[in-house]
Design brief:
With about 220 residues, this protein is of the alpha/beta class. It folds into two domains: about 1-130, Response regulator (Rossmann fold), CATH 3.40.50; about 135-220, Winged helix-like DNA-binding domain superfamily/Winged helix DNA-binding domain (Arc Repressor Mutant, subunit A, Orthogonal Bundle). Helices cover about 50% and strands about 15% of the residues. The longest helix is centred in the last third of the chain and has 16 residues, at about 205-220.
């Protein structure tokens, strides 16, 4: 059972997420909070597997979700954090991943209506993986296009594959999505890592981490 603590200051969004998660036999919503202090209390009391949190909430409505994720790296590294945001802002994603991409996810709130995508992201983060909204990857790539970068050398197919990788997909899933063979996916990924100067990692989550951390370094 994946134990989840939810933090969202909008009552309607909280209830919407609660209803989406209720039918899932392997997910238990143990607490729903409206602000940072109550979220911290719930984490202490419930010891969740995943914290599903808005990026902004009272008391400051700035970056409470990022603060929680950063704190948990030190106090409870086995706890996953899936951040929900209405902002396709790369700087938030980079802050979330600053200390590693494992057990971290960033989704835009317009994905919340898609139960399968939200539940899939919770499960992926719970088992140690990473899930990054493709719109965030697009924004990062677009930002790179404004300056000289190895990303400029990526072909359209390689950019598509990079976005698929950032969603935590394995080679088979990428092949199905792009309608190419797994062997072709392997070749494309190998080319991406050569161009980005990132060492080859066969594990999909490590690939995601390596790519996003590379982007984060370029942002700094």
């Amino acid at each position: 059972m994946i134990r989840v603590v939810l933090a969202e200051d909008s009552y309607l969004v909280r209830e919407g997420i609660r209803r989406l998660l209720e039918p899932e036999p392997d997910i238990e919503l143990t607490a729903a909070c409206a602000d940072l202090p109550s979220l911290l209390e719930a984490i202490e009391a419930e010891r969740p597997d995943v914290v599903l949190t808005d990026i902004r909430m009272p008391p400051t409505n700035l970056d409470e979700g990022i603060q929680v994720a950063d704190r948990l790296r030190g106090t409870s590294p086995e706890t996953g954090v899936l951040v929900l945001s209405q902002f396709a802002a790369p700087e938030y994603a980079l802050a979330l991943l600053e200390k590693g991409a494992d057990r971290r996810g960033y989704l835009l709130k317009d994905r919340v209506g898609d139960a399968a995508q939200l539940v899939g992201a919770i499960r992926e983060v719970a088992r140690g993986g990473s899930v990054i909204d493709p719109k965030i990857v697009e924004a990062l790539v677009a930002a790179r296009a404004k300056s000289d970068s190895p990303l400029d050398e990526l072909t359209p197919r390689e950019r598509e594959t990079l976005e698929e990788m950032a969603q935590g997909k394995n080679n088979a899933a990428i092949a199905a999505s792009l309608v190419i063979t797994e062997r072709s996916v392997e070749k494309v990924i190998h080319s991406i890592f050569q161009k980005l100067g990132v060492g080859w990692q066969p594990d999909v989550n490590r690939r995601v981490k390596a790519v996003l951390l590379y982007l984060a370094e370029r942002e700094a």
